[in-house]
């Protein structure tokens, strides 16, 4: 299975600037492009990184993958996923895998996943290709290679295209922000072809993000993005009546997310579970930032 672009990591590591300007057409943001990026991702940083100042320390959203081309699996097209996170130690992902909805959730010091038999099967299929167990600090929902202080300077790693480009997406006015990595970083990571485009609606709400490289393109449509002080406690609990539950520790969370994201929309090849087979050989699809 080809590895999914690190969209969520790309989103989380862009940072937090503040500016004011008159809105563009239909309320679409019109100020400096770097300021818009900061305002889009400031609430995300507030959930995923320590040191947040806003009262909204939780988020949830629905995303749909589309326009997937190149070396990424065709079955990614149309895949619908649900995600949620809450500072400091909760995260949840639900995705279509092997013909049903598979959920991975961290709730403090416990990690669970359902249905458990499918999770165990996937771990076996990816055996030898899994990322190493990661020690997750108690003060962040998932492991990220940056702190809140470092995130302030991360926009300097990106070159955002000049100009003010406005468009309409699904009937809604949006500002279009596009760019890539600064030349030095692009060269050192062999990612000169890395490009990202983001469509931003009024209120600094990201509607779509497209990641592309020489050999693939993938777009994520973001829907129902909401921020709140916290989410209901039931969000982080297994479904009522569920008995087939895989339980582990936060150190294994990254492995579970890896196998799920690399098995999205994989269908059973037969009714017999022993014949299920996700594609092999996950490979990096996005630059690995220092």
Descriptive account of the structure:
The protein has 6 helices and 12 strands. By secondary structure, it is of the alpha+beta class. Mean pLDDT is 83; it is low at 1-21 and 271-290. It has helices spanning 7-13, 33-48, 116-125, 148-151, 183-188, 253-261, and strands at residues 58-70, 80-86, 90-97, 100-107, 110-114, 158-160, 165-169, 172-181, 195-201, 205-213, 216-228, 246-248. Strands 1, 2, 3, 4, 5, 6, 7, 8, 9, 10, 11 and 12 form a 12-stranded antiparallel β-sheet that branches.
List strands and helices in order, with pairings:
Elements: H1 7-13, H2 33-48, E1 58-70, E2 80-86, E3 90-97, E4 100-107, E5 110-114, H3 116-125, H4 148-151, E6 158-160, E7 165-169, E8 172-181, H5 183-188, E9 195-201, E10 205-213, E11 216-228, E12 246-248, H6 253-261
Antiparallel strand pairs: 1-2, 1-11, 2-3, 3-4, 4-5, 5-12, 6-8, 7-8, 8-9, 9-10, 10-11
Short description:
The protein is an alpha+beta fold. The protein is about 20% helix and about 30% strand. Mean pLDDT is about 85; it is low at about 1-20 and about 270-290.
Q: Specify the CATH architecture.
A: Clam
CATH superfamily, by name, is Lipoprotein localisation LolA/LolB/LppX
User: Under the CATH scheme, which class?
Assistant: Mainly Beta
The chain-level structural class is alpha+beta
Count every helix, treating DSSP H or I runs of 4 or more residues as helices: 6
From the N-terminal CA to the C-terminal CA, the straight-line distance is: 25 Å
Shape category: globular
Poorly predicted runs:
1-21, 271-290
The count of strands amounts to: 12
**Per CATH, what is the topology?**
outer membrane lipoprotein receptor (LolB), chain A
Estimate the strand proportion. 25-35%
Binned, the helix content reads 10-25%
Succession of helices and strands: HHEEEEEHHEEEHEEEEH
Radius of gyration (Å): 19 Å
* Mean pLDDT over the full residue set: 83
Number of spatially distinct domains: 1
Major sheet summary line: 12 strands, antiparallel
